[in-house]
Design goal:
Blueprint (H helix, E strand, L loop, with lengths): L3 H16 L6 H4 L8 E6 L3 H11 L5 E6 L11 E4 L7 H15 L6 E6 L3 H4 L9 H14 L3 H9 L8 H6 L3 E7 L22 H10 L6 H8 L16 E7 L1 H14 L3 E4 L8 H22 L3 E5 L16 H13 L5 E7 L11 E4 L3 H8 L3 H6 L3 H8 L2 E2 L10 E7 L3
Parallel strand pairs: 1-2, 1-4, 2-3, 4-5, 5-6, 7-8
Antiparallel strand pairs: 8-12, 9-10, 9-12, 10-11
């Protein structure tokens, strides 16, 4: 799309990716080398980039494991590369988790486990708890992802079904020192939620995990239900010896990235309204809220003659009652926003996931410009029907308004930018 407003929005997207690059923040956060061995475990959508930065900056030898989803496989130094399933765990996820636990279990008190975590780690490291199978975990994850549950709710359940999440990796590494550096992809930057917290104490309970399944009407496999009723299956809590030598730092977050995007927007001559990074909920409902805000602000923009952008982050969801739709929460947000705006002039938008994959992909998200309704009519495309069918990706690919980047190598949640021009 050659529209100048799309170029402006794309520039903001590029600013977000630049701010989310681990190379900007990771070197200063690396710990001092230990007397013994240093083992790296890099897991997630930013794992390759984080591992590359760590290897380049580290003064001594490193060994360890890099676990990534398909499309990000790239050798890093002498580290072993594993490819695992996302968003559903697969056999590669189980194998990678077993390898990580084995590495941690061989460490001694003079050694260091350097964990480099980022979004996607929950699926990429999947060690079913005793009594559970990979199929059990896949069934529960699939149901949770389709239910519209928030990521903190999903990961609460995951932690209680795992032999590595919810602090169990730190337990396996004790008495070695554990340092975790994380790129946050969750609202609130909670260490428990990022990659389901393999190196931190878990404040949630079995009862809360059961409540999540009940809230969304999920009928868990019998082995999962039994596990969640067993008091002995509770996750490690604060005070457990496994966390005595453990440190945790979020090195970059959605809040930091949105602040950088705001700086870039002002540099492009835009007034900025920062709506925050804590947005959650159904994508189409949030779209209606933001459409109303945009229409209200448009009056002020036309009066002042100064272009303005509404920026927000967070992680929205889509409750998909029927299978078959091609879409994700960002494209669904844009489609619902556009339908609420109709062909209102001077209002354009972008929403995209900074990992480059919106839901199941392949688009990262989509653009909205005022001429799209007319283009859709000319193509015989019913945008309302596409929204009802959760087929936002199909709609925007047909319109030539999808943002397709491939995996970016980082992940700090979603970026939404609604651009208001004094047209």
């Amino acid at each position: 799309m050659a529209d100048p407003s799309v170029s402006l929005l794309r520039a903001l997207w590029e600013a977000a990716l630049a701010a989310a690059d681990p190379a900007e923040v990771l070197p200063a956060a690396l710990p001092s080398p230990p007397r013994g061995r240093t083992v790296v475990l890099a897991v997630g959508k930013a794992a390759t980039r984080m591992a590359e930065v760590a290897v380049a900056a580290w003064p001594g030898p490193l060994e360890g494991l890099v676990v990534v989803p398909p499309g990000l496989e790239r050798p890093v130094g002498g580290l072993e590369l594993r490819v695992a399933g996302h968003p559903l765990p697969d056999a590669g996820s189980v194998s990678a988790a077993q390898a990580a636990l084995a590495l941690a279990g061989r460490l001694g008190p003079d050694d260091l486990l350097l964990c480099l975590l980022s979004g996607g780690g929950s699926a990429l490291l999947a060690a079913p708890a005793p009594g559970l199978t990979l199929a059990d975990k896949q069934a529960v994850t699939r149901a949770l992802l389709a239910s519209g549950a928030a990521i903190d709710e999903i990961n609460c359940v995951r932690r209680h079904l795992s032999a590595i999440k919810g602090g169990r990796l730190a337990q396996a590494a004790w008495p070695a020192r554990v340092v975790t550096l994380a790129v946050s992809d969750v609202v609130g930057d909670s260490p428990e939620v990022i990659a389901s917290g393999p190196t931190v104490a878990d404040g949630s309970t079995l009862a809360e995990a059961r409540a999540v399944l009940a809230r969304y009407g999920i009928d868990a496999p019998p082995a999962v239900a039994a596990r969640l009723r067993d008091p002995a299956a509770e996750t490690p809590k604060p005070g457990d010896q496994g966390f005595q030598h453990s440190d945790y730092q979020v090195v970059t977050s959605p809040r930091q990235v949105l602040a950088s995007v705001a700086v870039a927007a002002r540099g492009l001559g835009l007034e900025v309204v920062d709506l925050g990074v804590d947005w959650t909920g159904e994508a189409r409902e949030v779209a209606h809220t933001m459409a109303a805000q945009a229409l209200e602000a448009r009056v002020e923009v036309r009066a002042s003659g100064r272009a303005r952008v509404l920026l927000s982050g967070g992680e929205l969801t889509v409750t998909q009652a029927t299978a078959g739709g091609r879409g994700g929460p960002n494209a669904e947000f844009v489609l619902a926003l556009g339908l609420a705006l109709a062909d209102t002039p001077g209002v354009c938008a972008l929403a995209a996931d900074t990992d480059g994959i919106d839901g199941s992909g392949p688009p990262a998200g989509a653009f909205w410009t005022p001429e799209l309704p007319a283009r859709a009519r000319a193509l015989g495309l019913d945008l309302g029907a596409a929204l009802a069918a959760h087929d936002s990706h199909g709609a925007f690919l047909t319109l030539g308004a999808a943002l397709v980047t491939g995996r970016t190598g980082t992940n700090v949640n979603d970026l939404r930018a609604v651009l208001l021009l004094p047209a």
